[in-house]
Write a structure and sequence with these properties.
The complex is a heterodimer of chains A (324) and B (321).
Chain A lengths: L2 E3 H15 L3 E5 L16 H5 L4 E3 L4 H12 L4 E5 L10 H8 L2 H4 L9 E6 L23 E3 L4 H13 L4 E6 L6 E3 L13 E4 L4 E5 L2 H15 L4 E5 L2 E3 L3 H11 L2 E8 L4 H13 L8 E5 L8 H7 L3 H11 L2
Parallel strand pairs in A: 2-3, 2-4, 4-5, 5-7, 6-7, 10-11, 10-13, 13-14
Antiparallel strand pairs in A: 1-8, 6-12, 9-11
Helix pairs in contact in A: 1-6, 3-4, 7-11, 8-9
Chain B lengths: L4 H26 L14 H8 L7 E4 L4 H7 L3 H8 L23 E4 L6 H15 L5 E6 L6 H12 L4 E7 L2 E2 L2 E2 H4 L16 E5 L3 H16 L5 E6 L17 H9 L2 H11 L5 H24 L17
Parallel strand pairs in B: 1-2, 1-3, 3-4, 4-8, 7-8
Antiparallel strand pairs in B: 5-6
The chains are: A alpha/beta (324), B alpha/beta (321).
Bound molecules: thiamine diphosphate (TPP) and magnesium ion.
Thiamine diphosphate sits at the interface of chains B and A.
Chain lengths: 324, 321
């Protein structure tokens, strides 16, 4: 079976889709020949598709997204890259007021097939302006959100995102780019709203996203040794969100730990927790536990960042708190 | 402009401090002692020093991701800077910020931002405070050629212009924003021309000539302190190294790099000082030795300092009365 990295999987998705549909264009800062993107996802694409379709932009995040949305409502299918997830905040009007609302506000007259890619996450000591995980900010009507954790998911979800006629926020994780995994040569897509069960288990459900999926799998393997069987679920898309898979799992295990890299308050974990409380509280044998970052900006120093980030030990501790 | 001998030597020494500090930081980076990334100021020393040599302690400076030089020029301590770069508790930001965010508020440095262009509106706000207090302080706001394409630049310069705020906008045009050259993202040659659109003076100068920078900022400072509003200064310069840690900067033609290395601002100023008889070769050598010792001591301090306690992560989210 062929193994490639998450970065290569993303690149393949972009390339295959660009070959399939020539209305697809890429735009972003330094995504072209000089740099190929800060994380090298677009390596070779400017060379293959030319500067018209792979466009280096000025440092103008708000206009990168605005232009992408404007192009999307007039027949192009843009995939915009924002160099770091933290910098999405510079384009919030275009994302939340424009991309997300245009179709609704104009009574369904228009489609907005735009994808916004951005890398999230801490763990590489680049401090508060380049490390935050902001996914919960985008849980708003009119936006879809994909958060792949593996090369296979990254490729399949990005292809779906590009084919979707709605705005899709596509969040990658810096520490996932170099991870290798099985990705078939054949063409495939992954539907939005379908969680992936990364490991089956009976005693507790762990829901995790992005890099935390990997930490959770390692934690679950450790827990196995202690005789605790954990099921690890990766929702893969936060909007739409696959309630069924989660609720089925919680009904089976009766226990839920939610793991996210973002700060705890107002996070995706809070939303997931509310869903379970509303729809399956009777299935719970213990309180829900959230493993998340403390409510602080991301600190720089390694000792601080390590304290800040959720890890295997914190996940194991949370599980042991609720599994007898 | 005639400057006293001491002032000229101080300017020379500051430029050297930046150069040697950056070389040391790069060396420590190679020894895996620097977490994350660094953006070196090597090659641009004349800008920070030429600007800050005009500033008083109570004037403000707004810095960028490439900020070590701004801090040193405004009078920050090398040991606390190096400690911050190494993520140590004794660093300026107690290890919370790192290379990209070194800041000494006690010296009027308003912060180094990792968000390109974000410092510009902040500098405008500092100018507003000065105007409200009625003092004759100024703000020097550093930013790059790349940042001048942000909306924040255009909005910020316009607001400072229309409110006649005491801000000196210092664009360090090192011709590149990461791998993107200026001509790929703007049609004008002089970013200073953008000033016209906001009704303020715009001046393009040789940013590798520290006296040219000094004089231009002197004029802009008089204007700002006199209540006549901001100036946009464009300092043409060049970073000798790549954008950040591992960037080999292959996107720059070799001849271009060589041409700019020949225009090294420190060598140029040294030659000039020797030519006009301010210092001798031997004295220049002594200054350098002295600077190297100070930088070595800063590095030693940083290396020997402890890392912050993990729980310190939770401090300073809010100020507590
Ligand atoms: C808003 C924002 N966009 C993009 C980046 C990534 N980035 C960091 S430095 C840089 C280039 C900045 O160029 P310039 O303003 O010319 O400053 P220089 O690095 O040349 O000193 C970019 C694109 C960022 N940090 N912030
Ligand atoms: Mg630049």
């Amino acid at each position: 079976m062929r193994e490639i990295t998450y970065r290569e999987a993303l690149r393949e998705a972009l390339r295959e889709e660009m070959l399939r549909d020539e209305t697809i264009i890429l735009l972003g800062e330094d995504i072209g020949r000089h740099w190929h993107g800060a994380f090298k996802v677009t390596q070779g694409l400017a060379e293959e598709f030319g500067n018209d379709r792979v466009r280096d932009t000025p440092i103008s995040e708000n206009t990168i997204i605005g232009a992408a949305v404007g192009a999307a409502i007039t027949g192009s299918r843009p995939v915009a890259e924002i160099m770091f997830g933290d910098l999405l905040t510079l384009a919030m009007d275009q994302i939340l007021n424009q991309a997300a609302k245009l179709r609704y506000m104009f009574g369904g007259q228009v489609k907005v097939p735009v994808v916004v890619r951005a890398p999230f996450g801490a763990g590489v000591n680049v401090a508060a302006h380049h490390s935050q995980s902001l996914e919960s900010l985008f849980l708003k009507p009119g936006l879809k959100i994909a958060v792949p954790s593996t090369p296979y998911d990254a490729k399949g979800l990005l292809k779906t995102a590009i084919r979707d006629d709605n705005p899709v926020m596509f969040f990658e994780h810096k520490l996932c780019y170099a991870l290798k995994g099985h990705v078939p040569e054949e063409n495939y897509t992954i539907p939005f709203g379908e969680a992936s069960i990364k490991k089956e288990g009976e005693d507790v459900t762990i829901v995790a996203t992005m890099y935390m999926v990997h930490k959770s799998i390692t934690a679950a393997e450790e827990l196995d040794k202690d005789g605790i069987s954990a099921e690890v679920i990766d929702p893969r898309t936060l909007a739409p969100f696959d309630k069924e898979t989660l609720l089925e799992s919680v009904e089976k295990t009766g226990r839920l730990v939610i793991v996210e890299e973002a700060t705890k308050t107002g996070g995706v974990g809070a939303e997931i927790s509310a869903v379970v409380c509303e729809e399956a509280i009777w299935a719970l044998d213990a309180p829900i536990r959230r493993v998340a970052a403390p409510d602080t900006p991301v600190p720089f120093s390694p000792t601080l960042e390590e304290f800040y980030l959720p890890n295997e030990k914190k996940i194991i501790d949370a599980v042991k708190e609720i599994v007898p | 402009m005639e400057l006293e001998k001491e002032k000229l030597i101080e300017i020379y020494r500051k430029m050297l401090e930046i150069r040697r500090f950056e070389e040391k930081a790069f060396e420590l980076f190679g020894e895996n002692l620097v977490p994350g990334t660094i953006h070196l100021y090597v090659g641009q020393e004349a800008v920070a020093v030429g600007v800050c040599a005009n500033l008083r302690k109570d004037d403000y400076v707004q810095s960028t991701h490439r900020g070590h030089g701004h801090c040193i020029a405004k009078g920050a301590q090398l040991d606390k800077m190096m400690a911050e770069i190494l993520g140590k508790k004794t660093g300026y930001c107690q290890g919370k910020g790192g290379s990209m965010h070194i800041t000494d508020f006690s010296m009027g440095i308003l912060g180094a931002t990792g968000v390109v262009g974000a410092g510009i509106p902040l500098a405008v706000g500092a100018g507003l405070s000065i105007q409200l207090k009625g003092t004759d302080q100024v703000v020097a706001c550093f930013f790059g050629d790349g940042a001048s394409n942000q909306g924040a630049f255009h909005e910020g310069v316009n607001l400072a212009a229309v409110w006649k705020l005491p801000v000196i906008f210092v664009c360090e045009n090192n011709l590149y924003a990461m791998g993107t050259s200026q001509s790929e993202v703007m049609l004008i040659e002089d970013i200073a021309d953008r000033a016209t659109g906001y009704g303020i003076p715009g001046v393009a100068i040789d940013g590798n000539d520290v006296m040219a920078v000094y004089e231009a900022v002197h004029e802009a400072g008089k204007r700002a302190r006199g209540g006549h509003g901001p100036t946009l200064l464009e300092c043409k310069t060049y970073r000798h190294k790549g954008h950040s840690r591992f960037d080999p900067a292959k996107y720059r033609p070799q001849e271009e790099v060589e041409k700019w290395i020949k225009k090294d601002p420190i060598k140029r100023f040294k030659t000039r000082l020797i030519d006009i008889g301010v210092i001798t070769e031997k004295e220049a050598e002594n200054i350098d030795q002295d600077v190297i010792e100070v930088v070595e001591a800063a590095a030693k301090f940083a290396i020997e300092s402890p890392f912050p306690d993990p729980e310190e992560t939770l401090n300073d989210v809010f100020s507590i009365e």
